[in-house]
Amino acid sequence: MEIAVNSERTKRFARGILNNVVWLILILCIIIFSSSIDGYFSIRNYINILSNSAFIGILAIAESYCLISGNLDLSIESVAGYSSIFSAWLTGTSVSSSGLNINPYLTLVLCLVIGIIVGFINSYLILKFKINSFLVTLSTYIIVKGLAITLTRGAGVSMLPGSFRLVETIKIFNISLIPIIMIVIYIIFHFILQNTQFGAHIFIIGGNINAAYSFGVNVKSVIIRVFILSGALSALSGWLMTAKANGANPTMASGMLFEVLAAVVLGGVSLQGGVGSLLGVFAGVLLLSSIRSALNIMAISPFITEVIRGLLVLFAILVDSIKRLFFK
Amino acid sequence: MEVLIRVEGLFKNFGSVRALNNVSFEIFQNEVVGLVGDNGAGKSTLIKILSGNFPPDKGDIYLNGLKVNFKSPINAKKMGIETVYQDLSLCSNLDTVSNLFIGREITKNFTGFKILQKRKMESRTAEIMKKIGINIPSLKERVEFLSGGERQAVALGRFVAWGQNLALLDEPTAALGIRETRKVLELILQIKKEKKDLSIIIVSHNLQHVFEIADRIIVLRHGSIVGIRDKSSTTPEEIVGLITGAISIKK
């Protein structure tokens, strides 16, 4: 396929636009929704959009790291779900809880450890037995999901100590700590990806794993660290869900995986590895959240929401292909 | 001239096929040697042994007078032997700077984080590209958007930056157009001039190219060396004769 692209400069300009197209769409969407939907244009709604994107947002960082390194982590959703029910089970006082009354911040540590262990197992299996990451994490996804349901025999847990909710109840300018935590994590992980040797190696491995090996990049160590981070971030996301909801049930994070993948692809992360930026991913997360909010306010059927979300992902994939076909 | 690498009596069989048969030669310091021969003559086998992909059945390799025994390509790399297989060793998703510094990023330690020194890496890259006279439109452009010749220049730029001892170039111009081929050949000569500690073995099917850049030419036929010629004392006709067997050596 060929189109007439005159100069290198126009090409680069067009590529630049396509690389940041998600921000353009986000801004357009917010302008259109704000001007056409009653009740959309309010600070409170914008804060809501931000707050509602926190869990997906943190999971999207985890998935972006994995995808850029050329891997896929399906287990993020069930690690988040397990972390959510596990922390509630340890701290809650309702019927299905453990009755142990453990300090909620100790449960955060325990959840992170579990996330790290799952991440390590994922990477170990991928590296040791050279199994595709899709298959490995599909297995751990199912196993951890099963463990979450087993923990309380499917029941939910409530009546958590008030101190658990501090991240939700403390507010700065009317914004709870949860979205602020997300933004801080975005800044840190964006910096790591763009400005450290570890980040550079993630891109190298995702781009050409053979070159990485032969130029002495420690591929194993990088992949292990990526999956450990992914597990830890997923666990954190699940713990925050419990804090916000003041309780948990074993299916807390169900369906988030596909929303995360949608956000990440919209944000310009290539499923083939080696390409992506957390700036774009952040916009992708906000875009999905703002569309969800619009559909909510208009009281549109949630089933249509799914269709629209699907169309958006398709659009994102098309933009990615256009980049590759036309501007080679 | 000092001998950089000496190969003595290499044999290699693949099943009943004799790929290398008593191959011995020397490569001098800062020399470009063309390795030619028909398909199946043993060129690739020889390159793969020198780059540590597999060991010979028999025979020795001496680097700077010391016997070496490569167990893997990384082993050979540590001894300063690098191989370029067209542009397969590039990360097309990254820019020129990142590609040049794969596995050798310049970093500064900051509380356990190794922070990239991007400015330093960029200026070093610009320096190297200038040294070899290659003008890449933007060093921060992803390599996949560069032309074939520019990509090959990036791959070769690594020798300028890091190469020492021996560079093995396996058909470096095979995938390139006429103008880009010309550039890459000039580049190889430029590298030779700039890097006095580097010798180059180039495998090519194109005798014209070999004659342009090589100091000496080694001809392989059926796994044996049938001729080693100084460029100045041979002709393309003689080399073709040796490759095809029209000129046979006296035993």
Shape of chain A: globular
Beta-strand content of chain B: 25-35%
Low-confidence stretches of chain B: none
- % residues in beta strands of chain A: under 5%
Helix content of chain B: 25-40%
**Spatial arrangement of strands, main beta sheet of chain B:** 6-9-10-3-11-12
> What's the gyration radius of chain A in Å?
20 Å
Runs of chain A in which pLDDT lies below 50 for 5 or more consecutive residues are: 1-5
Question: What are the salient characteristics of this protein?
Answer:
heterodimer, A: 328 residues, mainly alpha, ABC transporter involved in vitamin B12 uptake, BtuC, 15 helices, 2 strands, B: 251 residues, alpha/beta, Rossmann fold, 6-stranded mixed β-sheet, 4-stranded antiparallel β-sheet, 12 strands, 32% helix
How would you sum up this structure, described in words?
Chain A has 328 residues and is an all-alpha fold. Chain A has one domain (8-326): Orthogonal Bundle (ABC transporter involved in vitamin B12 uptake, BtuC). In chain A, 72% of the residues lie in helices and 1% in strands. Chain A is built from 15 helices and 2 strands. In chain A, strands 1-2 form a two-stranded antiparallel ribbon. In chain A, strand 1 and strand 2 form a beta hairpin. The longest helix of chain A has 27 residues, at 219-245. Chain A is globular and about 70 Å long. The relative contact order of chain A is 0.19. Mean pLDDT of chain A is 89; it is low at 1-5. With 251 residues, chain B is α/β, with parallel strands linked by helices. Chain B has one domain (3-244): P-loop containing nucleotide triphosphate hydrolases (Rossmann fold, 3-Layer(aba) Sandwich). Chain B is built from 8 helices and 12 strands. Chain B has helices spanning 43-50, 73-78, 96-100, 118-131, 148-162, 178-194, 207-213, 236-244; strands spanning 3-14, 17-28, 32-37, 58-63, 66-68, 81-85, 107-110, 113-116, 165-170, 198-203, 216-221, 224-230. Chain B has a 6-stranded mixed β-sheet, with helices on both faces. In chain B, strand 7 (107-110) and strand 8 (113-116) form a beta hairpin.
